[in-house]
Design brief:
Elements (H helix, E strand, L loop, with lengths): L2 H13 L11 H13 L9 H15 L2 H13 L4 H9 L2 H4 L1 H17 L17 H13 L2 H5 L7 H17 L7 H14 L4 H13 L4 H15 L1 H10 L1 H9 L1
Length: 255
C-alpha cells in the first residue's frame, strides 16, 4: 500500500472515519498532516497502536493542545485502551508539567469520557498510604537511579538538601509511579517522551533513557517512541533528544 492507503487504514483503526479529502477550510494542510503522521510515522518501528496513542496523549498533555488531546483520548478508547490506562498516562504528567496543566488535560480527558458514556470517577489506582509512601517510592527509585538526586543536590541549604530529593521520591515515584494501570516499562518510556517534549530538559531525558533501558525498554523502542512524538512536538525537540542520548543508544547497539 502507498501512504495514502496506509493513512486510510490507520485513520479507520484509530478514529473510525475517513481522512480529509477536500473538506474544511484547509484541506491541503490536513492532507500533509494526515499522510505524514498516519501514513508514514505510524508504520515505522516496532511499537503497537496502544503505545503510540499513549505517547501521543502524553505529548498533547505537555503541549496543552486540548482539542487534539480529546480526539486522541477517543482514539485510545476506539482501539481498546482502558480508561484507567488513559487516566494514568495523563495523571503521571503532573510532576513534570505541573498540576495546573495536568488539571487542564484531565478536564479534556473527562469530557471525552463523559461523551462516551464512561462514569466518573473511574476505579481507584492508589496503592500507597501516608505511612508507606516514602519507602514504596524509594523501592522503585533506588534500583534504577540510586542516590543520584540526593547526591546532586546535597549543596542545597538547610532542610532543602533533604526535602528536594524526598519530594521527587514521594511525589513521582510514590504518588504516581506506584499507581495501578501502567507497568514500570511503559511509565518510563512515556516519561522519556514527556521530557523530550519539554524545552530544556535534556539532562532529565538522558537520565530517563538510561532508566527506561534498565526496566526493559530497548533502544529501538525508545527511538521509535521519540519519532512517534515528533509530529506533535516538532523536529528540533526530536533532534535535541536524540543528540543528548546518542552515546547511550550507540552503546546499546554495540553490546
Amino acid at each position: 500500500m502507498d501512504r495514502i492507503e496506509l493513512t486510510k487504514k490507520k485513520f479507520r483503526e484509530l478514529f473510525g472515519s475517513e481522512p480529509t479529502r477536500n473538506e474544511g477550510t484547509d484541506p491541503e494542510f490536513m492532507r500533509i498532516l494526515q499522510r505524514f503522521i498516519f501514513g508514514e510515522v505510524c508504520y515505522v518501528g516496532s511499537l503497537d497502536n496502544r503505545l503510540r496513542e499513549l505517547i501521543t496523549v502524553t505529548v498533547l498533555c505537555v503541549n496543552q493542545t486540548l482539542p487534539q488531546l480529546k480526539a486522541h483520548v477517543g482514539a485510545c478508547l476506539n482501539i481498546g485502551i482502558s480508561p484507567l490506562e488513559i487516566r494514568e498516562t495523563v495523571y503521571q504528567c503532573a510532576p513534570f508539567i505541573g498540576f495546573p496543566k495536568t488539571l487542564n488535560a484531565i478536564d479534556a480527558m473527562n469530557e471525552t469520557f463523559v461523551q462516551r458514556g464512561i462514569s466518573l470517577p473511574i476505579e481507584s489506582a492508589e496503592s500507597v498510604s501516608e505511612e508507606t509512601r516514602y519507602e514504596r517510592g524509594l523501592s522503585l527509585q533506588a534500583p534504577i537511579y540510586g542516590t543520584e538526586i540526593a547526591d546532586r543536590y546535597s549543596w542545597l541549604p538547610d532542610d532543602f538538601s533533604k526535602r528536594v530529593p524526598e519530594w521527587l521520591t514521594e511525589l513521582y515515584f510514590a504518588d504516581f509511579a506506584t499507581r495501578k494501570g501502567l507497568d514500570e516499562k511503559t511509565r518510563e518510556l512515556l516519561t522519556v517522551v514527556m521530557l523530550a517534549a519539554m524545552s530544556g530538559a535534556e539532562t532529565q531525558v538522558r537520565a530517563h533513557v538510561i532508566g527506561a533501558l534498565k526496566v526493559g525498554n530497548t533502544s529501538e523502542e525508545i527511538v521509535c517512541a521519540l519519532c512517534q512524538a515528533m509530529p506533535y512536538m516538532g523536529i528540533p525537540r526530536l533532534f535535541n533528544a536524540l543528540n543528548c542520548v546518542k552515546d547511550i543508544i550507540e552503546g546499546e547497539k554495540s553490546e
